[in-house]
Design a protein that fits this description.
Elements: H1 2-13, H2 15-54, E1 58-65, E2 70-73, H3 78-86, E3 92-107, E4 110-119, E5 133-136, E6 146-150, H4 151-157, E7 164-170, E8 176-187, E9 197-201, H5 202-209, E10 218-223, H6 229-243, H7 255-261, E11 266-268, E12 277-282, H8 283-286, H9 288-326, H10 328-336, H11 341-376, H12 401-427, H13 431-438
Helix pairs in contact: 1-11, 2-9, 2-11, 2-12, 3-6, 9-12, 10-13, 11-12
């Protein structure tokens, strides 16, 4: 303890030098903490926005063969799928049957395109908590023939709450259909991807698609824990392989599943099958390309941190070499008074540890202030792909304790490593020679 106190006194004896060294360490800690928080926020925002836009974490789509030999998006083995979902060994918060349609909304000469998601409100009690409903009531969608659209689409059409619009779209077998729906709710555009969803009841959308009211095109599962996505996907594939049929892997990657989730898949099939052919994807599959960019940024952040650590290591090492030259007489006196070589060695190491602790603490304080400042910024007015990295107009920054502990440990190791060779040199000084060279 006496040597640690002496090291503490030595650190503050050269205030300017110690301040510069601690500042370099603090800057490294600040940088890696903010960069880790930023990449973590981007990953969180991407998954949150995609899961909100698509409506779940695991997605089950189905295809059937029409009488004319075309594949169409439909799940007609609903009882089988319900049984498989109930048998899953992972906790499920919501099961969301949905049908989707790409339509044109027409009001006089005004026309706009939108994707309409057909939903069961009783199955999705929390789906619209993140929507800012400007006018009307989303619960009115329970009545057939009603639709909720984004406010910007309403402006394009020059319509108000309660107005009727013509809805033009294709049935599930490719014929054109024309219906009249009533606008019962207007909400702020929630899209982070340049696309605006509209909503109607699944019965309303099925009527447009000309499919039975008790069937649907896909089922989205909201899991209690995102870490169970891979398990849920694997279990669903196994169970559906036993109980029904799984679509063979093809060359379209995620294009096919995404197209079926959008309700826009219809192709002529050379080798038709019986019943529903299922396909299971999850949020990780859908966000794979975007998350690859985020992971790349994370590796860049780690590389920058390593470079900064090396620079800091060189700076600390050079500073302690100067300290060694300045303290030759002091070291000689300590050795002459009975201090052992390992005591001198520990003294230098303790000083490096104290500098590291001060730098880490200062860096963390600055990082917390930086996180609070960035979180207060509002990016709600931003447009384009950048919006996918924000949630409700803000970056969801969060400092990971695991990352902080790893970064702190690396900084402490680097600080001690930087002081190791000067400390070893100080410990090896001959007391008599040190006293003679200082006089």
């Amino acid at each position: 303890m006496t040597w640690f106190k002496l090291a503490f006194r030595n650190v503050f004896r050269q205030k300017k030098r110690s301040f510069l060294l601690a500042s370099a360490i603090a800057f490294g800690m600040l940088s890696i903490t903010l960069l880790n928080a930023l990449t973590g926020a981007m990953a969180t925002a991407v998954k949150t926005n995609f899961s909100t836009a698509i409506g779940g974490h695991v997605y089950i789509t189905g295809e059937v063969i029409s009488p004319r030999g075309y594949s169409t998006s439909l799940i007609d083995q609903t009882a089988t799928l319900d049984q498989v979902i109930r048998s899953l060994p992972v906790p499920i918060m919501q099961v969301k049957p949905r049908s989707n349609a790409q339509v044109q909304l027409v009001n006089g000469s005004a026309v706009t395109r939108t994707r309409v998601s057909g939903i069961k409100l009783e199955n999705e009690p929390t789906s619209f908590t993140k929507l800012r409903v400007m006018q009307g009531d989303m619960r009115a969608l329970q009545q057939p023939g009603n639709i909720a659209i984004p406010l910007n689409r309403a402006k394009d059409l020059n319509v108000r709450l309660g107005d009727k619009v013509l809805v033009k779209g294709a049935t599930n077998t490719g014929q054109q259909n024309l219906l009249e729906w009533t606008i019962v709710a207007l909400f702020a555009d929630q899209s982070s991807f340049g696309r605006s969803n509209s909503y109607a009841s699944i019965v309303t959308v099925n009527n447009l698609l000309n499919i039975p009211a008790d069937q649907y095109q896909q089922v989205n599962l909201v899991l209690q824990d995102l870490n169970h996505m891979a398990t849920a996907t694997a279990e669903l594939n196994l169970a559906l392989t036993r109980e029904a049929s799984i679509k063979p892997q093809d060359d379209d990657g995620l294009v096919g599943p995404m197209r079926r989730m959008m309700g826009s898949n219809r192709t002529l099939v050379e080798n038709p099958w019986q019943g529903t052919q299922f396909e299971v994807t999850n949020l990780d599959d859908v966000t794979e390309n975007v998350m690859a960019i985020v992971r790349g940024l994370d590796w860049v952040a780690k590389l920058i941190f390593v470079i900064m650590l090396v620079i800091t290591l060189v700076g600390i090492s050079n500073s302690y070499r100067m300290v060694l030259l300045e303290r030759v007489a002091e070291i000689g006196n300590m050795r002459a008074m009975g201090a052992q070589a390992n005591n001198v060695f520990r003294l230098f190491i303790y000083e490096a540890v104290i500098l590291g602790m001060i730098g880490i603490a200062l860096g963390l304080i600055l990082a917390l202030a930086g996180v609070a400042t960035i979180e207060s910024l509002n990016f709600a007015d931003s447009r384009g792909p950048a919006r996918m990295f924000t949630v409700a107009g803000h970056l969801p920054l969060m400092i990971s304790m695991g990352s902080v502990l790893v970064s702190s440990a690396l900084i402490m190791v680097m600080a001690m490593l930087a002081a190791y060779f000067p400390a070893r040199g100080a410990a090896r000084l001959d007391p008599a020679e040190a006293l003679r060279s200082a006089t």
